[in-house]
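Can't paste images in this forum, so I'm doing it all in text. The chain is below; anyone willing to post the predicted structure tokens underneath?
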Amino acid sequence: MAAKLHISLLGQVKMSLDGKALNGFVSSKAQALLCYVAVNQQVHSRDELAGLFWEDSAETDAKANLRVHLSNLRKLVGDHLLIDRQTVAVAPDALFLDSQVFENQFKAGDLKTAAELYQGDFMKGFFLPEVPLFEEWQVTERERLARLALNVFQMLSERLSKAQNYSEAIQYASRLLTIEPWREASHRQLMLLYARVGQFASALKQYELCKEVLQTELGVDPTLETTQLLNRIKEVRSKPKPSFPLYPTRLVGREMELQRITELLQDPNCRLLSLVGMGGVGKTRLAVEAGQMQKSFLEGVHFISLVSLTTRDELVLAIANSLSFNLSGRLDPNEQILRYLRQKELLLILDNFEHIKEVGLPWLIDLLEQTPDLKVMVTSRERLNLQAEWLIPLEGLPYPEGFELAESYEALSLLEHHLKRLGKELDQKQRSFELKICQLLEGLPLGLELAAALLDQLPVQTLAEELEKTSEILATSMPDVSERHRSARAIFDYSWRLLSQKEQDKFATLTVFSGSFSPEAAWHIAGLSQTELDLFVRKSLLQASQQRFAIHSLIKDFAFDHLKHKAAIQNNHAAYYTSLVEQQGPGLSSAAQAQSLEAFDRELDNIRAALRFSLEQRETSHIEKSLSGLALYYEIKGFLQEGYRLFAQFQDVVATTENTDLVARIEARKSNFAFRLGKLEEAEQLIRQSLKRAEENQQRDAEAIFYRTSLANILRYQGNFSQASELYDQARDLSKALNEQTHLANSLNGLGNVAREQGRYEEARGYYEEALEQVRALGNRHNEARFLGNLANVLDELEGYEVAEQVHKKALGMFRDFNDLAGIAIELTNLGWLADIQKKYDEAETILLESLGIYQNLGNDLGVARDAISLGSIACQLNKWHEAKTYFRLGLETALNLKTIPIAIHGIFQVVKWFVKAPEVFDYLFYIAEQPNSYEETQKLAEAYVAELPILSQEQEAEAKTRAEKLELEQIVMRLFTLFDEYQFEFEAA
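Text version of the structure:
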């Protein structure tokens, strides 16, 4: 029996003997009989098989049929089937059965072989409807093997995903869904895998397929978890790719360290990895190289330089910038970042952590505790000494002690790499001096780069001898400094001495810069030409990248000690960068907004340094130039806390000045930050002071407009619509007179908001459309998106829900393009309200849950209050009474804390409608009807609801109105909270 019987049952049924297809079966039953005994490798009685395949036949007929079929099978497979008068069995030794091998490979852990064997459902397309017992067995076996296959594909996709082999993982995850297409978790896995390899279109398409399958097969929509993943992928797709410092040459050496870093970053136990070593050892270069190699983080790898930072807030804002995360709302920026990162899967590279260690360590501990899927890699001159820290100590590159195998050492390779870049090659006679330089510098990469630059001017022997002399001098003069640090100092000293006095002075002035700088800044502040900058680059004293320059922190520390006329240079620096703020400020509200924001982001370290100097020296001229641009930049970026603190410092500096115009400008901008942070009383007091100063001076300029609009915003927020409208009118008229388009647009938008909130929809539309004309003429797309959303809010009343929905979606798309989370949340809220009005309650709930989550992450309590009240009403419509009470409580408490009376009153109406019975309900409805600070829409809803209730007698109505007049807002809310508890059993039982 040398021939092999090959039976494939996973997928289409295929049989062969010694490589030749088996044909000639007398019937499908013969084929099924062979399959059955092959799978069930035991001895079968003839009675059993006859009863299985011919259960409806008489016993004699059944056995006769079996004999015919066995005779047929014996002719086809010969001794592979063991047949006697009583029993039938298959000969297992020469049998290949794919389903059996599939199971064995699964048990042995050879999942890939098992996956290759599974080509489809067991006996796919093979049916014997006239043999029900066989079909029952077939179905049972099919389901059992399919479950095994599901495990195989699931385990393979997860294992390959962990190994960052995403393309192969996609194949197995896709195959899993061919077995169970309604398996939502597998659709999510596939969406994630597509996103990891940058196939965002495929990820979004997979969501649509998931949605279609779930609706078709189960009649349900994707869960919130799946829709949240969809939004997360959309956000990743919309974000710009993270940027890294660029280097003109490849990394030489450090292969072992790179491999170790990758291993640790893939280890789930390693959350914090520190690359620790002295300055100049190549920590940053290694971190950048390692970071660019990592592909497993869905939200990417983000590099943040900490070298110019001094406070925790600056650290938080630097991270926000790197993540393209716009801060918003009054919640502390640090809390916003922590909430944002909580669900993110990314790697943060924090470079030069020693500069911010004191304030950074507590923050880092908090970050790691709150962000389970985030990892951090820091570079530092000293270890952090945290329990979570994993260390990779870095020293100089390995260097040879002698000539044997010298070319295999990384230090020598790096030195020769730099020499080749400079067009120099050393002959064998000079090799001993080259080795000596590597030894004296102890393989320090920065030292080797400086040495290579010096070899462009000096013979290698001279440099080796001079470095040795300098090292000996330093050993005597600096005995308390480690030998490795003396080696670095030796190369700096010698490089410095080779500069002329003029070059030394000019290079030292560059240490005034914080972070990188442009050639224009170097010229205006320090008087250095492009030629001189290029000279310092050739000497490896400056680093050049993308038409900007930077100094290594170790060289900067050395050169700063040689800086002359520090105060004058710092003043030049402050004057230049505050002027830059003044020049770029107008672009923030025009078509050039993106370019202006980029300029601010690029120069932020230097701008902050300029402001610190200006505050220390009380240089009001520098402060005055920067006010408008700085305030607008901080507002757009959401740096509200920093903006508030900075303008408070400005306020202190100008407290004694006679320049009342400057005082008013500072107070007004501090008021704006206070308002956005929820400090309403302070905000109103400050802006009234500014407006009073302007009126005393009969001021008619852009500032006077700004003061009026700012105060109107506060009054409207408090529900004081008449005074707000009057101030918006004044701002509009003055804007027209002065041709101030930006202020005109803002005042028109304010008037539209008041008109809308008072139910004057046609009038509101006119204001919004006029405001849109202005911002479109300016090219301010950010305000265009805001105003479009406002316009859509009145179009639903004037032109119907479909028109309004399209405009809201257009605004939402624009906000997504800007990655403006606050704007995204606002438009989601609007779309949720529209769905609610159209009684699409499930859709409304899904949309509003997304916007509520964004508001909570941003700390935007106003949005939380509105959405929570809306979700409470929707939960009632869906009979989710417990959830309704939770949402209503959150919304009302938040509205009361904010003192946003219109929202609180609207929340009261919604609670009253669902939870309060007659006659008490009339007290609250009459209270709402008489409140001047309530929305027109709320009053109309209350009046309509009264009409639905049983009619009161004149006496009952009078009594209810009397009681209503005595009610206080807080009193009503507390009473409603009590009613929640009283109605708890009744509603939850419903």
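The first strand starts at residue 5 and ends at 8. The domain at 255-393 is CATH 3.40.50.300 (Rossmann fold).
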